[in-house]
Prior knowledge:
Rossmann fold, 58% helix, globular
Amino acid sequence: MRGKFITLEGTEGVGKTTNMAFIQQWLTDQCIDFVTTREPGGTPLAEDIRHLLLTHRDEAVDETAELLLMFAARSQHIAQVIEPALAAGKWVLCDRFTDATYAYQGGGRGQSTEHIAQLEQLVQGDLRPDLTLLLDLPVDVGLQRARKRSDPDRFEAERQQFFTRVRDAYLERARQQPKRCQVVDASLPLEQVQGQIDTALQQFIAEANHD
Ligand code: TMP
């Protein structure tokens, strides 16, 4: 049986790393065979593209070039990692996927949603996440946390208004696709955040077993 594809999304500083580890432990406890990966990245070539995307540079980065690089990395990642794993019956847990493109390149940069949808179709065909957990947090709280961690990369260095548009675009996607995309209130204490994730995963498994 084909594996399930789960993605984790959110703006900067929402607690993705901690909650990725929680989900990994959760899947392990359920004896589910899974691979963990991330975007942009997940293969040597796609990680090289990630480096190109996150590095500060003197020239202005053309927004269409940025969008195409995201999908170039994704195409390689799907071919090398995601599709083979799903076909082999493994679950795939991915730190960000195409919802991030709708949020960052669409909402943040103002790239056309139609163009993103065309690239999504070209690169992914029918491949879509089965479940997306969207960690949601007020932008100022997340940015404060993220900026304490390390020097900001090219995205993290964006202004607060950029991330407000990113958050709004994520929430809009969740409103449009409420079944696939579960919003988790990441402003609550960690135990309660993970309680929400646990509930969403249990519900997802119950429905998957029912299919
Ligand atoms: P990460 O550091 O959270 O792994 O993500 C790297 C950055 O890349 C993050 O700031 C969001 C950004 N990004 C996009 O802009 N578009 C995308 O499609 C993806 C996957 C990530």
